[in-house]
Design a protein that fits this description.
single chain; 113 residues; Hypothetical Protein Ychn, Chain: A; 5-stranded parallel sheet; 3 helices; globular
C-alpha cells in the first residue's frame, strides 16, 4: 500500500554525511509507489544549491541530483530571512515553519535526519 512520506533533513551537509544519505533514501522511496516529499530545514537547503564543494560526500550527491530532478520529487524549503538560493531545476517551494509542521504531521510517515 502506497504511503505519503516526508523525508525531513535538518542537519548541515557540511558537517555530516547524513543529509546526502537521507536524499538517497528519499530517492529510493520515490522510485517505488510511495508519494515522497523532501523537506529541507536550515542549512540542509545547501544540498540543492549551486555551491556544493564543501558538502560531505558531494561526489555521491552529484549522482543523485539528476534523478531527483527527473522524478520531480517535491521539495519544501524552510522560508528564512537568510535563504540559501537553490537551483531552479528542482520542484521546490518555500513555506513557513507552521505550514511545514502541519504538512509533516499530515503524512503517513516522516523520516527525520
Amino acid at each position: 500500500m502506497a504511503k505519503n512520506i516526508a523525508v525531513v533533513i535538518q542537519e548541515d551537509p557540511r558537517k555530516t554525511h547524513r543529509p546526502v544519505e537521507a536524499l538517497r533514501i528519499a530517492l529510493g522511496l520515490a522510485a517505488g509507489s510511495h508519494t515522497t516529499t523532501v523537506v529541507l530545514l536550515g542549512e540542509a537547503a545547501r544540498l540543492l544549491s549551486e555551491e556544493t564543494d564543501d558538502i560531505i560526500d558531494v561526489d555521491i550527491l552529484e549522482k543523485y541530483l539528476p534523478s531527483i530532478e527527473q522524478l520531480e520529487i517535491p521539495v519544501v524549503l524552510q522560508d528564512r530571512p537568510d535563504q540559501i538560493p537553490v537551483r531552479d531545476e528542482f520542484s521546490a517551494r518555500r513555506e513557513n515553519d507552521e505550514t511545514i509542521s502541519s504538512f509533516v504531521r499530515s503524512m503517513d510517515c516522516a523520516l527525520v535526519f
